[in-house]
Amino acid sequence: MSAVEAGPLFRPAGAEDGEQGPAEIESLCMNCYRNGVTRLLLTRVPFFKEIIVSSFACDSCSWSNTEIQAAGRIQEQGVRYTLAVTSRQDMNRQVVKTDCATARIPELDFEIPAFTQKGVLTTIEGIIDRAVAGLEQDQPVRRATDEEVARKIDEFIGKLKQLKEVHSSFTFIVDDPSGNSFVENPRAPQKDEALVVAHYKRTPQQAAVLGLAAEEANETPADSAEDLRSEVLQFNTNCPECNAPANTNMKLVQIPHFKEVIIMATNCDSCGHRTNEVKSGGAIEPQGTRITLRITDPSDMTRDVLKSETCSVEIPELEFELGMGALGGKFTTLEGLLKDIKDLVERNPFSLGDSSTPSKMEKLQEFGRKLLEIIEGKTKAHFVMDDPAGNSYLQNVYAPEDDPELTVERYERTFEQNEELGLNDMKTEGYEAAAAASER
User: Fold this and answer.
1) pLDDT of 6-51, one tens digit each?
2) Strand 11-12 and strand 35-44: pairing?
3) What is the distance between the alpha carbons of residues 68 and 121, in angstroms, rounded to a whole number?
4) Run of H or E including 341
5) CA 343-344-348 angle, 5° bins
6) What pLDDT is stored for residue 1 in this prediction?
7) Are the beta carbons of 345 and 368 closer than 8 angstroms?
8) pLDDT tens profile 193-205
């Protein structure tokens, strides 16, 4: 008989057995250790794919077991089915749940983790029945050893059984990173309003569980932006203090509600010198930025601050101004930046030793005391950051809402500011024609 005469290898689920019945294999029963029969049926789930249904039955002890396996390969993406169960008819929907799929009912905070059950072709009601049977299995032992735990499990089993009556709607979720699970759409090929199907990219952890980690890693370009964000890059350099060989670490960091920055840190093993520097990962903004924070609470000291090399800092209450370039680029907290400013002022060489005068020392000590009071939250003050390049940032703790204590102003740069940034002589369009004209 030819393959055509024998009929298709995969038949639709629920079709009547014809000439081609399930294959039968004599197998060992794992309950009584006598021989039973395993039946294998290759079938096709409508609007889904092919699966292998395996059913074992033992005539000696009447033990039986059914499971399914996907007949195809692992899909390119994982799949998540979210069904709003609102009627008894929904309980009869067919479900293909593979062994690596997770089933959840959020209303009961109930979850069947992956790899705790074999794959199964059943209905939503069948999945709940299997869960109830699993919970009831050891209840007699629990009642004898821990009555309180057994009572709580009995209460939960009662809640699961009530779900089958669908007195109130609930959500049924099947999440399968292999993409081979399925929840029936009885309206297919039309859209089912109660069923949401979402495909997603597997995480590295999910790929590793499925045995795909090495394969998917090879498919990802080695120099992709995602790799750069998750990896700390290291390159050789020389220590700025002792000129000994040292290593500089560099990492891309995404600041929420702002942009990417590059954090660089150098540690010297020879002299112990350490430096860290922050540079903007983007271009110079079209406008300058002036950020003003009214410090009213000690919690303001925990705000994240990105101060670029082109940013100046001002504290009007102390009549203090720190010019651009001082302290370099920094990504720290407001408290950390104020302490760096305090250390910078106190280490001024003209205020130490023979170069100092009593009046200078008194003024610097008074400044240090007032700055310390601001850091400790004893004094209210304004903290102003002015960056012509627009690459500085002060955290808005109310984001994405407006911060009542924070003001961000955009302004047009002056000619002098553009000159300091090197923008006046910079030409990014039409420079080839200008260069050709100058050569003539």
Assistant:
1) 444 445 544 444 445 678 888 888 888 888 988 887 776 654 556 6
2) parallel
3) 6
4) helix 334-346
5) 110
6) 37
7) yes
8) 899 999 898 888 8
Q: CA-CA distance, 407 to 332, in Å (whole number)?
A: 20
Residue 1, C-beta contacts closer than 8 angstroms, at least 6 positions apart: none
Contact 169, 55 (CB under 8 A): no
Average pLDDT rounded to a whole number, residues 249-277: 79
In total, the chain counts a number of residues equal to: 440
Q: CA-to-CA distance for 375 and 106, rounded, in angstroms? A: 46
Angstrom distances, CA of residue 185 to CA of 95, 124, 188, 189, 203: 10, 13, 5, 8, 27
Residue 286 in tokens: 């079209």
- Is 84:171 a contact under the CB 8 Å cutoff? yes
Contact 100, 210 (CB under 8 A): yes
Q: Where are the beta strands (DSSP E) in 242-354?
A: 245-254, 260-267, 274-280, 288-295, 304-307, 312-315, 320-322, 330-333
Q: Of residues 323 and 14, which shows the higher confidence score? A: 323
- pTM exceeds 0.70: no
Cβ count within 10 A of residue 63: 15
